Amino acid sequence: MTRSTLSMFALALALGAPAALRAQDARLDSRLDARTREAVVTIIDSARGVGVPSEPLVQKALEGASKHADGARILTAVRMLARELGDARAALGAASSDAEVIAGASALHAGIAPAALSKMRASRARGSLTVALAVLSDLVARGVPGDTATTVISALTGAGAQDAELLRFQQGVERDIAQGATPAAALGVRAQGAFPAGAPRRTP
Amino acid sequence: MRQHDDTEDMSRDETLERVVQELRRPLRVNASLFDARVMDEVMRAPSGVGGRFESLLRPRTFRVSPLIALAAGMLFAVSIAGSILYVLPSRSRGAPSARGAQSEVARAVSGSPIVEFGFVAPHASSVALVGDFNNWDPKATPLRAASTGGVWSVEVPIQPGRHLYAFVVDGTVWRPDPAAPQATGEDFGEPNSALTVADPGMR
What we know:
By secondary structure, chain A is mainly α. Helix content of chain A is 75%, strand content 0%. Chain A has 2 domains: 14-92; 114-204.
């Protein structure tokens, strides 16, 4: 390979790399100002480097743009989500799917502790935790105390509850809350229905 | 007087004979013309049912080429199959989409479950669905208005997982789905709704 050929190859790499980067985030080009876009792309690249799914970060930036948020606010939200995604990945394990990590980040955003995610993982070592984590997030969003919700959902998954059963459980709690029950009481009543023998079984 | 009577009797006999002969004379009838005239009279008579739509009730004979008949048959079969495919998911929708709701209804050909979104906005001129499945683009997924009641709806294939979404009314007003769980946190001042799409292939 001649020296001129090497030079051409290096030049092509130098020109090609930024082009590829821009192509990956083409959706951001028309929605964010240049400064915000560069900062968001940097966060996304860092997240990608540690195995965090990048699509939720792109979507968070696009959400901010559609809601006419300023650049600083968008960056704050994207940074926070990147941190939550990273924490969720760490708590759930490296083998977790992107969908599980995204649902785990939602749970963290709702106020669930990372240790609770690990507890959930232990309750269902095999099989997806996506729905279980989403149900947990939604219950907390409805006002159910996080530790109580974690205990009950972990017990349900540990007892072999299917995703459809978890969703039905959530709907029952939400219906009770809508009819006037306090969130904690609604969860307790539904949990008693799910575990007629008494308190939820402890997960191994 | 008796002679007179005899002459009169002979005259009556002749008259009677002519009448008998006339009645016995065979009548020539063109059968096809006769049938046509009879049917013409029957059709001309008021039926009491058809009235002005009588012509629509009158049976007709059509000549159709085999190719057109085959095409019509296939079209009929496709329409029947389409109706069945539409009706079955509709029955599995469960709760109606009034006042805003999303429900997983079927599994799309692409592999993503189809989710129906509904929103009630009687006075809106447009309603759009935005979320992390369509880049939060208000132009990407407009809802269609029902003919009455102000109910807007759309069906969208969505990947299994947890998603955030909202509705944009008249291009400017953001609204969460009142029938869905609200997501925690409002990063940008507008609340989102949460959607969980289960993967039928997983537990």
